[in-house]
Every structure is written in C-alpha cells, then in structure tokens.
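Hello,

Our lab assistant flagged a job as stuck in the queue for most of the afternoon. It eventually completed. Since we weren't sure the result was trustworthy after the delay, we are filing this so someone can double-check. Below is the sequence as submitted and the structure that was eventually returned. Let us know if re-running is recommended.
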Amino acid sequence: MNRSQRHVVAIALAAVCLVAGAVADRAWIGRSNEGWFMYAPGSTSPLDPSNDAETAIRRVGVWLAVIGVWTAVAWRLYRDSE
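-- returned structure --
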C-alpha cells in the first residue's frame, strides 16, 4: 500500500471510529437531554439527573477507547514495513 492509500485508509478509519463512538456513546450512556427534568425552586437551571460525574467518566472512557483504537491502527498503517 502506498502513502496516498494509507492516508485515505486512515481518514476513512477516523470517520468509522467517529460514527462508532457516537453510536456507543448514545447506546451505552444515553442522551443527557432526554427524560425527566426537575426544576429547582428559585433557580433558572434544570436539574438533570443523568448529567453526573459517573456519566462523564463513562463518556470520556468511550471516547478514549475510540481514540486508542484509531491511534493503534493508524500507527500500524504508517509503520515502516521494512
């Protein structure tokens, strides 16, 4: 595989990883703007029970895994095959 083909494969893999990460994020974590909301008296912001630290940590974990997979495959792709 020549250098130009490697670029195309790396960009296509990035697009696939982006879609897979978004699907995994939505499937395993869910949307933070759906569901039950409670408005606290005397405040202007809603309390969203799905927007907590655990959800944020899981979301970061999903995206770090996606970035790790892309990095590993891209590294293998661009590695010299001598």
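-- support follow-up --
The delay was a queue issue, not a problem with the job. The result is valid. The longest strand covers residues 38-39. Residues 3-78 form one domain.
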